[in-house]
């Protein structure tokens, strides 16, 4: 993930030492993530998906969105070790802008980031709809499942610009028009606008509506069919956490878009600082796949009951438990 091959023996010793210090700091953070955060995120994301899908009857609208986020988190977990311990880290320049490995990992990373951001955004909007209009079934589990399908499809289509960038790098000698599409800054600008600006505006609008409606108590607040009040805390925590962890990454995309392609920086220390912040922001983005399932596990009161039912079912086998309590089907709004 880091190397100082940019420097040679004729460069300033202070600049080279700065590059090595950045590499040491980044290496320590990367190892901490791979040893602690990576296995925890992998286990809890898989557990969140398995527990909820094995209890489909009791799933609510927020559960569907968090399952969607957990699946995207599993994709990030698959990309993280390759990125942090990949050829770029060992000074073999495969993690390059024109390489198949880079393009594949970039597409997977972009798709996951878009799914996480838009799932979080639509969760906040649907939660407001559920509180404002609890009997309209607009934010039902059935509708949410179809919405999540559109989220994945839209994320893949948005990442299509990276695929075009890859294709044109291989056929640019044959097709002159491809030279106009070899612009990674434009792809970063698209990701910045679609993947961050639009969700941020929508989330701020949804949170303003939610805070406004919470100040206006109505008889509907006593409706037993409404979501558990703890979901509100989980919603606020997850939205704030996602934007805190992903904002540095999208900020570096903005800087890259405004500054130009890598290698155009006026000084090597400045380039080293930018690359260090870029890699550190990617590490924060990877950590979102660990933080979200942990918050869901701690703040969702129904998760422990679903997990216990699943464990009892696995313990009893196919015959089923004779004294297993009947599952009360929740009325899904």
UniProtKB/TrEMBL annotation:
GO cellular component, one term: plasma membrane
Transmembrane feature ranges: 31-53, 65-82, 102-125, 146-167, 189-213
Top-level lineage group: Eukaryota
Protein name in UniProt: G-protein coupled receptors family 1 profile domain-containing protein
Single GO molecular function: G protein-coupled receptor activity
Matching InterPro entries: GPCR_Rhodpsn, GPCR_Rhodpsn_7TM, GPER1-like, GPR146
Keyword Ribosomal protein: no
Glycoprotein recorded as keyword: no
Domain (G-protein coupled receptors family 1 profile): residue spans on this chain: 44-296
Keywords: Cell membrane, G-protein coupled receptor, Membrane, Receptor, Transducer, Transmembrane, Transmembrane helix
